[in-house]
Amino acid sequence: KLGVHRALVVSNWEIAKECLTINDKAFATRPKLTSSEHFGYNCAMIGFAPYGPYWRQVRKFSTIELLSNHRLELLKHVRELEVKTSLQQLYQLWNKKKSSTSDKVLVEMKRWFRDVTLNVILRIVVGKRIPNSYEGVETVKWKKSLDDLFDLSGKFLIPDALMYLRVGYWWRPEAHEEG
After folding, report:
1. How far apart are CA 42 and CA 155, in angstroms?
2. 53-111, pLDDT tens digit by residue?
3. What's the confidence (pLDDT) of residue 8?
4. How many angstroms separate the first and last alpha carbons of the chain?
5. From 75's CA, which of 21, 82, 101, 132 has a CA 20 to 30 Å away?
6. How big is the chain by its Cα radius of gyration, in Å?
7. What is the average pLDDT score of the chain?
């Protein structure tokens, strides 16, 4: 048991393959975590939704409407423009920081790819991008908040195992540090 929930530990690759291919529908659902209720609008977002009729309907809509070849082709210019803009920003950063002793600028690629991806999504959804990714206090605060959101949404918290602790857990900020 994992708290009040029954759990199955699979330690053999052959059994794991069987679980994920033959019995995939039984193992396809996601656990109803505290974070998915709060961040995922009570598990309504596709990434948090449990497997079932609702999930199949949202997946079908996403596949047919949002991620179709036609839609991706229509939005190709946004991806290209964002990559071009981000490369220009890298060039400007290099040009600004280059010196006579070194022609190199250290770039954290994980952060750069995250920024490019985030800006592509924001341009498609909102029509705007986050200004200069490497400067600005407001930008840093916003990205820190987003990183915290993703970090918390992936954590296993104590109330996920012990259901009776759910009441009031989210209203105490220090509880996240304890969990």
Report:
1. 17
2. 998 899 899 999 888 999 999 999 999 999 999 999 888 888 887 766 677 888 888 88
3. 82
4. 19
5. 132
6. 21
7. 80
Share of the chain above pLDDT 90, in %: 15
Which stretches of the chain are DSSP H helices?
13-21, 24-27, 34-39, 53-61, 69-74, 76-97, 109-125, 137-153, 158-161, 174-178
Burial of 82 (0-12, 13-18, 19+ CB in 10 A): buried
Question: What distance in Å separates the CA atoms of residue 146 and residue 46, rounded to the nearest whole number?
Answer: 18
51: tokens are 């497997």
**SS3 state at 5:** strand
- How far is the C-alpha of 38 from the C-alpha of 149, rounded, in Å? 11
CA distance 19 to 51: 15
Cβ atoms 142, 119 nearer than 8 A: no
Amino acid at 140: V
Tokens of 4: 């009040």
Distance CA(153)–CA(49), nearest Å, equals: 13
Residue 170 tokens, joined: 């989210």
∠ CA 60-118-77, nearest 5°, is 75
